[in-house]
Amino acid sequence: MIIDSLDKLALYAAVHPGFADVDAFLATYDLSTLAAGTHPINDCGAFASVNEYTTKSVEDSFIECHRRYIDVQMIAWGEERIGITHTRFCQELPYDEQKDLQKLTGKVDFVTLVPGMFAVFFPHDAHEPGVTSGTEPAAVKKIVFKIPVEPGPEQ
């Protein structure tokens, strides 16, 4: 996993070719005004999923990971805590192939994601997103870039 400030995102382009596409997308669009929904970011299957929601308690959230996609998560407004750990420290629940969602149980440590930061989660990075940062649930606008683990033919 990677957690850093958005102004450093270009430094990670060598990690995976899809990261350069995320950086180019960010140079084109204002995240705070980007419409909710799915937005393609390249011709190789990468896309941005934009959601607005209210954060939730730890008891109402769950740990997850993905097999086919790398997540690059960032906040347009609001803030949330994200639990983080390695999948080897978790117990697996059934994998949903259609949603590319593996739910897990285990113990996580938390980081707080705020505007101007990003977090990258590879398939071995378990994460528990959307957790309330303060004492009360809060509104958040979040963008999750889904980048195929295996680059497509154009990358």
Count of separate structural domains: 1
Taking all Cα atoms into account, the compactness measure Rg is 15 Å
Oligomer: single chain
Q: How are helices and strands ordered from N to C? A: EHEEEEEEEEEEE
Supply the number of helical segments: 1
If you average the pLDDT, what whole number results? 94
Characterize the largest beta sheet: strand count, sense, and whether it forms a barrel: 6 strands, antiparallel
- Say what the CATH topology is: Jelly Rolls
Low-confidence stretches: none
Structural class: mainly beta
CATH structural class: Mainly Beta
By CATH, the architecture is named Sandwich
Explain how this protein is built.
The chain is mainly β and 155 residues long. The chain has one domain (2-148): YhcH/YjgK/YiaL (Jelly Rolls). 7% of the residues lie in helices and 48% in strands. It is built from one helix and twelve strands. The chain has one helix at residues 18-28, and strands at 2-5, 37-40, 47-54, 63-65, 69-77, 80-86, 90-96, 101-106, 109-113, 117-121, 125-131, 139-148. The strands form three sheets. It has a six-stranded antiparallel β-sheet, covered by helices on one side. The radius of gyration is 15 Å and the shape is globular. The two termini are 22 Å apart. The mean pLDDT is 94.
